[in-house]
Amino acid sequence: MNPPSSRPSRLTPVRPATLHRVGPTPAGFPVPLRRVLAGDLFVLTGGLRHLGHLPDVERLARAAVAHRLPGSPAVDAPLDELHRYADTHAIEAIRTDLETRLRPLGRRVLHDVTAALLPRDVRPYVSEHLGVRIMPPLGTVGEPAAFAALDGFLTPRDVHVDSWFNTALNSVNLWMAVTPVRRGNGLVLHPDAFRRPLRHDGHTLLPGQDTGDPVDLSLDPGDILLFSGDHLHASQPNTTDATRFVLTKRFSAGPPRYPLRATGWVPYLDPRLLGTRLAPLASLRSRLTPAGLRHALRGRR
Questions:
Q1: CA distances from 189 to 3, 49, 207, 229 (A)
Q2: What is the number of other CB atoms lying within 10 angstroms of the CB of residue 126?
Q3: What is the value of pTM for the model shown?
Q4: Per the count of CB atoms within 10 A, which of 72, 73, 195, 247 is most buried?
Q5: CB-side exposure of 195: number of CA atoms within 13 Å?
Q6: Cα 198 to the center of its chain, rounded Å
């Protein structure tokens, strides 16, 4: 077994993940959310493209590049070659710009993805979280320590479980490929450790624990990976020669349920209330949980 005491690297034996690849049907994507929460990994093949959002994401990405690097060849180059024309500081500026441009579209993407999942036997509660993760090849990142606050967004993120710090136990992560995700620049999961009691510091796995063999995956542009936020996972250091570009969103399958000892808290919204006069109450279900009340009390100190 491979010790999880360090980030996965090109020297760490990693096997391909077992995925359920699901294509669209006239009614939607057949992905039972109960199976996702039970640990199964699903890929909506071409999901962003099928729902019509991939061209808009690419257009907004190019607009952010043009805004930050006017006149640069990067404006017309493939997005996975961004590192050839921009240093890490410029890529971070592009990432920040794009996050703002994408936020309204991100809400529509999450709505459309959850509406397309079949069967519709669990009501999703949506998160405002939007992750723009532009990870250039590791060797091109100058002074990685200077970007430590962007672990998982610009540089690799160590092994962790999302609910350790702020997400719901019944959260589902959407990992959406904008450029090709390949072995060597993607996501590493430890499915053998799913929902096992593990020692951690509130954010990261502590070393010396058996978590089973890590697995990674490949995605084509437009593919959407769905996986439980309770999976132990990490960013794979980008040892390829291409910039990896993905978007992430989250929702909870049913009303959010939070862990007892999370270090943070984020609300999930009832989508039925969004866009109505009752929109201010959309997060009420989250706020009336013990975790939400603890968060409110911490804010008053």
A1: 13, 25, 16, 11
A2: 20
A3: 0.92
A4: 247
A5: 11
A6: 22
- Take residue 290 and report the two structure tokens written for it: 């013990």
Q: Which residues pair with 171 in a beta bridge?
A: 252
The DSSP result for 127-186, as a single string, is: ----EEEEE--GGG-S-GGGGGGGBTTTB---SB-GGGTTS-TTEEEEEEESS-B-TTTS
Burial class of residue 18 (count of CB atoms within 10 Å of its CB; 0-12, 13-18, 19+): exposed
Q: How far apart are CA 283 and CA 298, in angstroms?
A: 18
